[in-house]
Amino acid sequence: MQSSAVRWLATFVGIVLGASLLGACGRPPMTVSPTVTLDATTKLFLPFITAINPNTTVIFKNADAATHTLKTVPNADPTTVGGFLNPGTITQSLNSGQQIGITFTTPGLYDLYDDTQATIDPTYHRVKANNGTVGFPYAPEAVVWVRGNPPGKVAPDTKNSVIAGVDGFQYQFTALQYHGTLTLHNYDTDKHYASDPGTFEGVNPTAIGNSVNVILGTDDAPPDGGDTPLTFYVPGLYYYYCTAHANFNTQLQRAIPHKDASLYPIVMESFVLVVQ
Ligand SMILES: [Cu+2]
Predict the structure, then answer these.
(1) Shared-domain flag, residues 133 and 171
(2) What is the Å distance from ligand 1's center to 213 Cα?
């Protein structure tokens, strides 16, 4: 018992995000830290989403035989820089068997990925699993949600759109104030959906709209496509995906893209952070 505790201490690196970087050593926290594991079987980060309070240390563990990395996904929307998305930057290498502790101090969403198995799509700014990876089409991506009010201004209302000719939402992450409305617009010809898979991993505290939320395209709502407004009364993190272009895998708690979805292997999903 003694020796395993010492070993654990020896491999523990403390990193504090949002305030300052702790160089030397971290103390193991008194409470059990949530763990995100780069799983040896799926080669994915499990769980996909981790919800924590500020000043919680998350253990990132590489259970695989190969070296992996943990890196911040560049913000697709430049207006979110300095705000709710990625208020701190992480660039870490994780050797086989290594675990590190990262303490998240600033509220917001942290979108992380492993660049040994995925790239960032230059057009759609999403994590895209490399062909031939074990986890394909799932991307080795992990989202950490730190509850509370993020830095910067959060808009009262916001918009996310289905891109013309593409089975995908413009942004993976948006934010708004509670009692505000997320308007989903569809510039594509086809119908798309913002479907709610129910509550999981602390996400979706209430149903999103009618849980189906069809968004009419230019075929059904000519000439410019339809709007689906969704108003959020309960703060929290919400997740939606398009049931016409993905299925929700309840074991992995992630959506898997349909092979005929135009952005495959990028999945048609999005998050909206609703701030009090
Ligand atoms: Cu769709």
Answers:
(1) no
(2) 11
Q: How far is the CA of 208 from the centre of ligand 1 (A)?
A: 16
Q: Is residue 178 located within the same domain as residue 139? A: no
DSSP 197-244: --SBTTB-SS--TTSS-EE--TTTSTTT--EEEEE--S-EEEEEE-TT
User: Are 169 and 108 in the same domain?
Assistant: no
Distance 189 CA to ligand 1 centre (A): 11
**Ligand 1 centre from 66 Cα, in Å?**
35
Within a domain: residue 9? yes
Distance 56 CA to ligand 1 centre (A): 36
What's the CA-to-centroid distance between 266 and ligand 1, angstroms? 12
Model pLDDT for residues 187-196, shown as the tens digit of each residue: 999 999 999 9
Q: Residue 201: give the domain boundaries.
A: 158-275
pLDDT tens string 147-203: 999 999 999 999 999 999 999 999 999 999 999 999 999 999 999 999 999 999 899
Distance from Cα 257 to the centre of ligand 1, integer Å = 10
Taking only the tens place, the pLDDT of each residue in 92-109 is 999 999 999 999 999 999
Please, which residues have CB within 8 angstroms of residue 17's CB and are 6 or more apart in sequence? 87, 88, 90, 102, 103, 104, 105, 106, 110
If asked whether residues 13 and 108 sit together in one domain, one would say yes
